[in-house]
UniProtKB/TrEMBL annotation:
Location(s) in or outside the cell: Cell membrane
Gene Ontology process terms (BP): transmembrane transport
Name of the protein this chain belongs to: Putative PurR-regulated permease PerM
Source organism per UniProt: Camelimonas lactis
Transmembrane segment boundaries: 12-40, 52-77, 150-170, 211-235, 241-262, 269-285, 305-336
Length: 368
């Protein structure tokens, strides 16, 4: 019976993976809509407890959400579009300036210690890294573009996702109850416990980390703009957005901002230090104050595991895999910990005690 249960759940997972592989591109607006419904469902429940009907609560929430998105785009898009265009136009000048600074200050040091060849190798390696990074970014943008256009294009996404979110907000509790009724009766309590653990992990990370990204984006954008860094708003908001991927956002933002600061401010090193201080302060506040409060320690998503999930699901299912990587990684983590607990409590784990040879018992004195 245990084998048949295992085969059943393995079959469910294989069927889900096959479905994503076949219809991943077509599911993009639906995954976005389901994600919105999942994020906004607690607010709908709270409004419903206050006496508002479920339909009215869904309408109010989605209307406010769309208004906030439109307002944010109306304010940010013109500024960011101008900064993106300016940043791309100035990139050749930045690289040329960095090359000149390297020849003026770094190369003499390498020549003094007789390791100039190491500098040449480093320049070649950096060039290869930039080339591969540009290729990866282009592939990612191509994946995003093709995934969002596979059915009705970007306009279809804008139309379909809110509609899906609206209907799922209305029927969320009924859908959860229906899925619960499909679970085999003998395993229902176990599945419910696992589902609660998965929901706690996903909600704790996604909702908490989203607020962390928002805070850091605003903090870096304002701080870098006050210092006077070129394209400070663009770099700050981009860093905050990429903070959703542990270590990647902060590292990339620090490298880009320090590069721009060196090109812009050198030899006035005080402003360069100020840019570095903004990132140090942001990381200190995020690691010691913001993340412990908003995300907490009970999420159970190790940063390395999260990065692996993003890369693995992205390579398997494209951009749709990146979208589902966090919830899927959280679910796999919960299931893996559950399987480990079962293994540690099983007779198979403790079987080594029985595998020991029986000890010889000496007969009492006087016998034999």
């Amino acid at each position: 019976m245990q084998v048949s249960r295992g085969r059943f759940w393995i079959g469910v997972l294989v069927a889900a993976a096959l479905f994503l592989w076949l219809f991943g591109g077509a599911m993009f607006p639906f995954v976005v809509g389901m994600g919105l419904a999942y994020l906004l469902d607690p607010l709908a429940d709270r409004l419903q407890r206050l006496g508002m009907s479920r339909i009215l609560a869904a309408c109010v929430i989605l209307l406010l959400f769309v208004l906030l998105v439109v307002l944010a785009l109306w304010i940010l898009v013109p500024v960011l579009a101008q900064q993106v265009a300016g940043f791309l136009d100035n990139m050749p000048r930045y690289f040329a300036r960095l090359h000149d600074l390297g020849n003026a200050y770094v190369r003499p040091l390498f020549q003094r210690f007789g390791v100039e060849q190491a500098l040449n190798d480093a320049q070649t390696s950096v060039g290869q890294i930039f080339s591969q990074g540009a290729s990866w970014a282009g592939g990612l943008l191509k994946s995003v573009w093709s995934g969002s256009q596979s059915v009705l294009g970007v306009v279809g996404l804008v139309v379909i996702a809110p509609v899906v979110a609206f209907y799922m907000l209305i029927d969320w509790d009924r859908m959860v109850a229906a899925i619960d009724s499909w679970v085999p009766v003998g395993q229902r309590e176990t599945v419910r416990t696992l589902a609660r653990d998965i929901d706690r992990a996903i909600a704790g990370f996604v909702r908490g980390q989203s607020l962390v990204c928002l805070f850091l984006g605003v903090f870096y954008a304002v701080g870098l703009s006050i210092v006077g860094l070129n394209f400070g708003a663009l770099i700050g908001l981009g860093t905050g957005f990429l903070t959703f991927i542990p270590y990647v956002g902060s590292t990339l933002g620090l490298v880009v901002s320090m590069t721009v600061a060196i090109v812009q401010f050198w030899p006035e090193w005080t402003w360069i230090v100020a840019v570095l201080a903004i990132f140090v302060a942001g990381q200190f506040i995020e690691g010691n104050i913001i993340s412990p409060v908003l995300v907490g320690d009970a999420v159970g998503l190790h940063p390395v595991w999260l990065m692996f999930a993003l890369v693995a699901f992205g390579s398997l299912f494209g951009f749709i895999g990146v979208l589902i990587a966090v919830p899927a990684g959280a679910a796999i983590g919960v299931l893996a910990r559950f399987a480990l607990r079962k293994y540690l409590a099983s007779p198979y784990y403790h079987d080594e005690d029985r595998a020991q040879p029986p000890r010889m018992v000496s007969p009492p004195r006087g016998e034999g």
